[in-house]
Amino acid sequence: MDEPRWLNEQEARVWRGYIDLRRDLSSLLERQMLRDDGLSAAEFALLVPLSESEEGVLRARDLGLAVGWERSRLSHQVSRMEKRGLLVRENCDEDARGSMVRLTDAGRAAIVAAAPAHVEAVRRYFFDVLTQDDLQALEAIFGRVLAGLPKALAEECRED
To answer: How many CB atoms lie within 10 A of CB 89?
Structure first.
């Protein structure tokens, strides 16, 4: 077995910083959304792609891929959101085994109400502290890292 390629001190600081940033920023944004709009991060995560889709409807499989969730997690979250009246499940006309998830009027109203404060918080806590050079560097870095992620991840998600 090959020896692990351990992180050097700088790499460890950068990696830890990324983990801390992701955790703290996500937590801050979720608390703000729960306090101001009564939406959880999971609810918002599903409302976004549905609100951006044609007619507010997506196949459950495609919605799961859009948010990177496995089928079980998606199913449980959709059930909770159905109880709140934010979305509904429908049969899929093309495939009897598949189901569709549709945004309700209440779901659309919830995301329309939550979006302005969420965008303002993202701007305040993330973008406002960056320079234009920072943005260009992050765009390039994120692109390279995402392009280098294993194709197996996408394949794995499609099978769930």
So the answer is: 15
The set of residues, in sequence order, having a beta carbon less than 8 Å from that of 25 and lying 6+ positions away, is: 125, 126
Query: Measured between alpha carbons, how far is 24 from 122 in angstroms, rounded to an integer?
Result: 12
For residue 38, give the nearest of 117, 122, 104, 105 by alpha carbon.
Answer: 117
The pTM score is 0.84
Tokens, residue 120: 């303002």
Evaluate if residue 95 carries a pLDDT over 80. no
